[in-house]
Amino acid sequence: MLLAHYPPASTMAAGCFILQVWLHEQKLESLSADDMREIKSRGFSDAQIARATGSSMLAVRAYRKSLGVLPAYKRVDTCAAEFQADTPYMYSTYDGTCESTPTHHKKVLILGGGPNRIGQGIEFDYCCCHASFALRDEGFETIMMNCNPETVSTDYDTSSRLYFEPITVEDVLNVIDVERPDGVIVQFGGQTPLKISTALQKALDDNPIPAASGQGNVKIWGTQPDAIDEAEDRDRWMALLTRLNIKQPAGTSPRQLKSILTSQCWLISIWTG
Questions:
Q1: Closest Cα partner for 20 from 4, 44, 36?
Q2: Residue 230 three-state SS
Q3: Do residues 107 and 100 lie in contact, with contact meaning Cβ atoms separated by under 8 Å?
Q4: Which pairs with CB-CB distance under 8 Å and at least 24 residues apart come from 100-104?
Q5: DSSP letter at 6?
Q6: pLDDT tens-digit map of 73-123
Q7: What is the DSSP string of 107-169?
Q8: pLDDT tens per residue, range 201-243
Q9: Long-range contacts of residues 227-231, Cβ cutoff 8 Å, at least 24 apart
Q10: Is the pLDDT of residue 5 over 80?
Q11: Residues 154, 142 contacting (CB under 8 angstroms)
């Protein structure tokens, strides 16, 4: 029903705009497999579909998977079709057969820093690289997920496989579905992976994914998302320091104009005694 109403690829921008308008008139359950495949092939994320249809990103993901609409991972042809390439560089598409060929070995997914500019976030790249080197020395396959080709973490010899994908909950879960690693490391890529860690943990708790190695389910390794959030959320952090009786400068986290004015008066009263 949907496919016949949209312009060809030569007018992709117009087609996407019309599709977005159409989506706002639909309920999630009314979308067919063909509808969903067309929507995803046009580049719409599960979060965008959720906003348009009044549902949640995880609900869209579950419904999309129930329709059998899954991303396929293609290998980047580093040999320009001159001869067969077997490079472990993958990117996702909703068109064709998956070329990822994951294994059943012990493996770990490392989330990189995302689209940083050249010279920015070098400490995150350094951490991701050394995490990969150390884990490979311990006998793990290392899977790097990053979308910045200007980093060492995306070099051909840094990890066992590399996925050129955005660092979002949807895309990370898609890679986890394919690779099913024993663990996921979110701590070394900086703010980009850290800010999705809580949502990622919830998704893994709600729908556990068995590890390909057969050793339990996929888990987030290292510092857990709740502890990360407690360290990053200013109110939770202040509450923790107070609970531990650790002295701290006076502070607050105003989020509205009225609370900002109130906070300023409160801080001034403290500073002036």
A1: 44
A2: helix
A3: no
A4: 100/73, 100/75, 100/161, 100/178, 100/179, 102/161, 102/178, 102/179, 102/180, 102/212, 103/141, 103/212, 104/212, 104/213, 104/214
A5: S
A6: 998 876 766 776 666 889 999 988 888 889 999 999 999 988 776 666 788
A7: EEEEE---SPPTTSSHHHHHHHHHHHHHHHHTT-EEEEE---TTSGGGSTTTSSEEE----SH
A8: 999 999 999 999 999 999 999 999 999 999 988 889 989 999 9
A9: 228/186, 228/187, 228/194, 228/197, 228/198, 229/197, 229/198
A10: no
A11: no
Q: Tell which wins on pLDDT, 47 or 262.
A: 47
For 178-228, give the secondary structure using H, E and C: HHCCCEEECCCCCHHHHCCHHHHHHHHHHCCCECCCCCCECEECCCCHHHH
Write phi, then psi, for 192 (nearest 5 degrees). Answer: -60, -55
User: Cα angle vertex 20, ends 19, 23, to 5°?
Assistant: 85
121-154 residue pLDDT tens: 788 888 999 999 999 999 999 999 988 777 777 7
Using alpha carbons, list the distances in angstroms from residue 226 to 110, 146, 154, 196, 198.
Answer: 19, 23, 29, 12, 7
Classified as helix, coil or strand, 234 is helix
Q: pLDDT tens-digit profile of 165-203?
A: 999 999 999 999 999 999 999 999 888 899 999 999 999
The answer to whether residues 146 and 90 touch, using CB atoms and an 8 Å cutoff, is no
Cβ-contact 172, 194 below 8 angstroms: no
Q: Which residue has the tokens 């046009």?
A: 42
Amino acid in position 101: T
